[in-house]
Amino acid sequence: MNDSHLLQVARELKIRPQQVLATAKLLAEGATVPFISRYRKEATGLLDEVAVAAIRDRLTQLAELQSRRESIIASLQERSLLTDDLKKSIFEAETLTALEDLYLPFRPKRRTRATIAKEAGLEPLAEMIFAQNEKLDPKAEAAAFINKEKGIETADQALAGSRDIIAEMVNDDRLVREKLREVYQKQSTIRSKVLEEKKEAGIKFKDYYDWSEPVASVPSHRLLAMRRGETEGVLLVRMHPPEESAVGLLESIVVKNASSSGLQVRLAAQDCYKRLLCFALEGELRIDSKRKADEEAIRVFADNIRELLLGSPLGQKNVIAIDPGFRTGCKVVCLDKQGKLLHNTVIYPTTGTGSAVESAAELKALCVKYQIEAIAIGNGTAGRETEAFVRKIGLPASIMVVMVNESGASIYSASDVAREEFPDQDLTVRGAVSIGRRLQDPLAELVKIDPKSIGVGQYQHDVDQSALKKTLDDVVMSCVNGVGVELNSASKQLLTYVSGIGPQIAVNIVNHRNANGPFKSRNELLKVPRLGPKAFEQAAGFLRIRDAENPLDASAVHPESYPLVNAMAHDAGCSVRQLITTDARKKIKLEKYVSDTVGLPTLNDILSELARPGRDPRQVFEAFQFKSGVDKIEDLQPGMKLPGIVTNVTAFGAFVDIGVHQDGLVHISQIADQFVKNPSDVLKVQQKVTVTVVEVDPLRKRIALSMKSNPEIGPARANGPEVRGPRPAARPSTPPPKQSFGGDWFSQAVSKGKK
Terminus-to-terminus CA distance in the chain, angstroms? Predict the structure, then answer.
């Protein structure tokens, strides 16, 4: 454990070094982020999951930096190039960029123009010229370096070779790169142009056929859109500051005077920029801007996934789930309170009067037979029509009818997980089961699907996939452990995300449960193969056993704290169960139980848990219903106020499901009366909102919505010509004056943001 790294992390995160040290030790011992933040508060000084993860990630980055530092030093030592000053500078370099700048002059190079010039013996001439002595006559000196055997036949050739050497010297200069890098970061403009032969094939990138804006302020989604266009061979994208600005700065650094030597250095500097530096620094800028865009896109995606995973569960209810369809009918499945498939069939409510009557009778009979408490209907094709049918057949008012977002259900139905769960059922049955289970418990069902397939991201397939996976894994683990997992009913996919378990132990838990029956206590986990004391310590507090003999097994109280709770119960003169169910907790004086290892934070957590053992932190489920009679995009009219559910939050706004099989867009300028800088500060996935229809374009399936108190309503132009609006300003954070389908903001948002 590197002490300097610990101090650096503490300084960067503005926390005490002791907190970083304690967290680093726990991480090194194999502790997970959820475990550390929940059960080791005294050790870390109350650091939450975000802080613990930040320490973990920064320490990893510094370790990688140290590894590269050691590799460079080894390379320099091997070639006898390492001096004391260079070694000191290498150890003082705090970033990978600074480290690589130091190493650049010594990096083994391919054969360059400068290398060839040096082989021709021109290095002394280059050094003389670069010194820029005002009395030096470069051309006269160059005559002495003519060497026809080595290809130097004239003084001009000697001067050209010396300039090649100087250009490489300038290119390798750390100060030059630092100064020019700053210019690139602050003054560069990103420009995209269409390749003429790709104009028709790449029409989806039309907004970027001739586009430019400052790199420093380009939004994540626009940069990723341009890069995708470039990857698909439609666009040519470049990032550069004004050339005169960059070259002027370079000359001010390396040119000392206006002498003949100075002129040669000026020419070398200009050549260096155009041939070497501009490409190298553009490459760096592209990597850096892509990294920042990735981070923003991943953050948006992670926030959306968290909200989706923590959606309100209906809970343990008998459910009928319907995967709607027109021609092929609606697949119907009946699930018990635990999500077990009891029955499946197909009904045809939309293919004729007779079928509708028969379908209604069958659905009613299933509700009676399986004591159905709720009906989940997928929100895809025929969803609203099926919902309308179900609501009018006369079911008891006690049976809740709910539209469920089925995004990703088809991915699940074709997955290995689904085939393993239902080897004898077809895709449609598996998809319907997934819809029903999502209503019962979104978290337990959605963990079976790759988060990238759920459809709440922003260019998730274009970002760094390893960084995306790591972030999403953290989010899923945080959600799973924050809610807690019922040990005797959890799938192996859900158990995989429990702190300390992982895929293999999850399989072993399920196998042990199948072979030996339900777990009766948390301690029985120690009988599971490969689940040793360390894994038990990490996992036990996040696993629940409903109706266990020890009531603490159904709570978030960690087994290591059971003796403490027993002592509290003894001192209160009651049993542990009575401590939970009565007011006996009020007698407890927490200060009495403080020790060297247990402080008030943990004791407060225990007391809070005893008051509501095993409580679900998710919000209570509330039924939602779209506006009756508004089932398709043709039913919409500007000015309508409609209920909706947020399905995706992006950097430029939010998409809202209003029940017409096509999400509408609330542009960032239409979220509130006061302009909102970050949509995720105001809106969350699954949030129920009321929106006003601003514009409708049925032909292109585009819906513009507003959440303003008095939005400006535009005309519906379903059959009229498209009116082009003004291009957005270079800084898109300024809201446009009016929403219009012709304005670039809408076409960009819809055509790019939903991919």
Answer: 43
Q: What share of the chain is helix, strand, coil (3-state, %, to 5)?
A: 55, 10, 35
655-684: average pLDDT? 93
pLDDT band at 715 (very low <50, low <70, confident <90, very high): low
Q: Which 3 state secondary structure label does DSSP give 678? A: coil
Scanning the structure block, which residue is given the tokens 């309170």? 337
**Run of H or E residues at 482:** helix 465-483
Residue 249 DSSP code? H
The predicted pLDDT at position 198 comes to 94
Closest CA to 13 of 68, 69, 53: 53
- Residues facing residue 692 across a β-bridge: 641, 706
How far is residue 91's CA from residue 88's CA, in Å, rounded to a whole number?
5
Q: Which of 738, 694, 684, 706 is closest to 308 using CA atoms?
A: 684
Residue 106: Cβ-neighbour burial (10 angstroms; 0-12, 13-18, 19+): middle
Structural domains for the chain:
3-106 (1.10.10.650), 113-302 (1.10.3500.10), 319-440 (3.30.420.140), 633-753 (2.40.50.140)
* Distance (Å, whole) CA 229 – CA 226: 5
Provide DSSP, 296-322: HHHHHHHHHHHHHHTPPP--S--EEEE
* SS3 assignment, position 351: coil
Rg of the chain (C-alpha set): 33
User: Which candidate, 685, 694, 703, places its Cα nearest to that of 646?
Assistant: 685
Mean residue pLDDT across the chain: 92
Average pLDDT, stretch 477-498? 97
pTM as predicted: 0.87
**What DSSP character marks residue 451?**
G
Contacts of 134 (CB under 8 A, 6+ apart): 257, 259, 261, 262
Question: How many angstroms separate the CA atoms of 654 and 679, rounded?
Answer: 7
Token digits for 608?
């809070």
CA distance 38 to 56: 16
**Bridge partner list, 657:** 645
